[in-house]
Structures are given as C-alpha cells and as structure tokens.
Automatic annotation (TrEMBL):
Principal EC category: hydrolase
UniProt name for this protein: adenosine deaminase
GO cellular component term, pick one: cytosol
Its EC number(s): 3.5.4.4
InterPro entries, alphabetized: A_deaminase_dom, Ado/ade_deaminase, Metal_Hydrolase
Pfam families for this protein: A_deaminase
Required co-factors: Zn(2+)
Record carries keyword Ubl conjugation: no
Annotated keywords: Hydrolase, Metal-binding, Zinc
Annotated ranges, domain Adenosine deaminase: 14-349
Protein's organism: freshwater metagenome
Length: 359
C-alpha cells in the first residue's frame, strides 16, 4: 500500500510549471488596489476574500466559454506598466513560495493595450516584473527562473505580429509562443503563417488544444501546425480504446506517445470547465501510466484558487502518487521547457534531482 505524501514533502518537492496565465493568477487584493486607483468600478466585490470566492464560483460553470468571461476583470486592472510589473513580480513570488524552480508564464500582449501601451511596452513591463520577482526571491533564498510565453488569441488576427515579437525578444525574457482562446470554431490552422514564421526563425511554440474540443483539434495542432507541446490535451484520451483488456492507442495518440510531445495538463482547471470528472479520474494519471509526457500545471491560479502545491496534493491523493511520480512530472517539465539542453540539465541536476534525492 502506497503511503500518502505529507504536506511537507509536497511543499518541498521542486516543481516545474509550463502552463500558467499571468492574467489568471492575480492576487485579489492587488486587483482591488489597482481598481481603486484606476477607477475601475466593475469588480464583483471589493473585499479580497469575497472576490476570490466569486472567481472560483464563476469559473466552475462547466464550460470553457463562461470560464473565459471572467478575464475581463483581471485584464482591466493590468493596463499600465506599473500594474503589469506588480502583477508579474507577485506571480514570481507566489510561485517561488510554491516550490517552483522553473516556470513559463504566458500572456497575450494585445489584451493590455487598451490605455495606449504598445505590445513592446507590455512585454518589457512583464519581463521587468519577472526580473524584480526573481531577484527578490533569490534574496529570500528561493532560486527560481521565470520565462515568458507570448499568446495570440484564436479569435483575433494579430498572431503574425505576436510571432514577430517572440523572435524580437528571444533571449530577452521571452522563450516562445502560444495560441489561446476558445477552440470551437477557431482552428489553429487559421494561424499557420505565424507558426511558419516561428519555425523559420528557430522559435518555440505550444498550442492550446484538446481542452474543450475533440481529438481533431489536437491533430490539427500537431500534424498541421507542428506544435512542440499541447496545452491541456486531455481529449487525447478519446483516441485510446479502453474497452478491452489492454488500452489500444489510435494513430494520433500513438504518434504523440512515440514523439513524446509534452501535454501541459491542469487538473483543477479541467474539472471546472467540464473536461474531467474528478482528480481520481483525471486523464493525467492514466496517461502517465501509459508513458505519455505529461506535466502538472495550474493554468489560472486565481480562477481555480489553486497552486502547484494544491495540484500536486490532489493528484497525488487521487492516484496514490509517490515522490518518484512527482519527480517524473518535474523532469518531464524541465526537459520540455523552451530553453537549451544545457540549461535544462543545469536546472534539473542542481535544483530538481539534487533535492528529490534528499527528500
């Protein structure tokens, strides 16, 4: 019988986070502070505890579309350089406190230009906030590295411009590109020019797919758009036949397994949007056993009232995971990160393996 991991073990376990949205992870009090200064009057509550509860309740509707509507509030209080810097800095500190040693945090720069900021100013403010947070965390004895992914939105038409920003800021705090937003009716192939540009310029990219839409969305992302990683990818389970004694993989599932394409899974978020029924049956546990390259992620910490500690706790309890299992997903994460192999090795050996060896 596998013993449940202790809270101390989970807290101390080094974690890698590849799928976290900056505008989905604000501290409630920060939102209130920004709203009071900027004159934003539409927050559902100006009490931090009540506001936190509202986000979780509003995001637990069971549909991705209603979940996404809540972002209007967070985006509205991230429209100046000062606001963006504070949010990015606090993001780093919150992740460091969670035991995260490496993270790629994403955001769509077009969303934060309502008051006149350019995309470049948004990106530079975000990176500045990350740098401040990393410096502050290091002084507190918590070494963490944060890189930025730039998102384009499926329903809009600025993906090519965002792709040029990824190349422009490559090596300057930005490591890749993502397509986010509603899947239904907005296939990733609408943005094929952006993906081609990124490949031609040696830039990395991931694609949200198979979160609320079917296997075909994942197939387009992998086979037509050349995705290196898949955001969520939980619907890939539909390409596996469990009716017999042994699981039988369809051609897409087999391809993703063989190529070890990383699946950026976020259990709590998937439960909220109706993509999974429970932690104990979430796709991550089954697919890890089958050898898929799965990673554990938060997606939107505010909307899910979650953290990497909570995600690890829930899945460890649901599937009786051991420290070795948490080590596996951390290793999957760092070796799927959009940084060089030498950088991956350095972080893995010094900050992940070395710590797990002592736990």
């Amino acid at each position: 019988m596998t013993l449940l991991l202790s809270e101390q073990q989970i807290a101390k376990a080094p974690k890698v986070l590849l799928h976290d949205h900056l505008d989905g992870g604000l501290r409630p009090q920060t939102m209130i502070d920004h709203a009071l200064v900027s004159g934003y009057t539409k927050l559902p509550s100006y009490d931090a505890d009540q506001l936190a509860r509202w986000f979780v309740e509003a995001c637990s509707s069971g549909t991705l579309e209603l979940y996404l509507e809540t972002f209007e509030h967070t985006i509205s209080v991230m429209q100046t350089e000062e606001e963006i810097i504070r949010v990015a800095r606090e993001c780093v500190l919150d992740l460091a406190a969670d035991g995260v040693v490496y993270a790629e945090v994403r955001g769509a720069p077009e969303l934060f230009t309502r008051k006149g900021l350019t995309m470049d100013q948004v990106i530079e403010a975000t990176v500045e906030g990350f740098n401040q947070g990393m410096s502050e965390a290091a002084h507190a004895g918590q070494k963490i590295r944060i890189e930025h992914l730039l998102c384009a939105l499926r329903q809009n038409h600025v993906s090519e411009e965002v792709a040029t920003k990824v190349v422009k800021y490559k090596g300057r705090g930005v490591v890749g590109f993502d397509i986010a937003g509603p899947e239904a009716g907005f296939p990733p192939t609408d943005h094929i020019k952006a993906f081609n540009y990124l490949r031609e310029n040696g830039a990395h990219y991931t694609i949200h797919a198979g979160e609320a839409f079917g296997v075909e969305s994942i197939a387009l992302a992998v086979r037509e758009c050349g995705a290196e990683r898949i955001g969520h990818g939980i619907r890939l389970i539909d390409d596996i036949d469990f009716s017999g004694g042994q699981p039988v993989l369809g051609s897409l599932a087999q391809e993703i397994l063989d190529r070890q394409i990383c699946l950026e899974m976020a259990p709590t978020s998937n439960l909220q949007t109706g993509g999974a029924a429970s932690y104990a049956t979430h796709q991550i546990g089954v697919m890890k056993k089958l050898g898929f390259n799965v990673t554990l992620n938060t997606d939107n910490r505010l909307m899910s009232a979650t953290s990497m500690i909570r995600e690890a706790r829930e899945i460890a309890d649901g599937y009786s995971w051991s420290l070795d299992d948490l080590h596996d997903v951390a290793r999957n994460g760092i070796y799927s990160a959009f940084i060089s192999r030498d950088e991956q090795d350095e972080i893995y050996n010094s900050q992940i393996k070395a710590v797990y060896d002592r736990l």
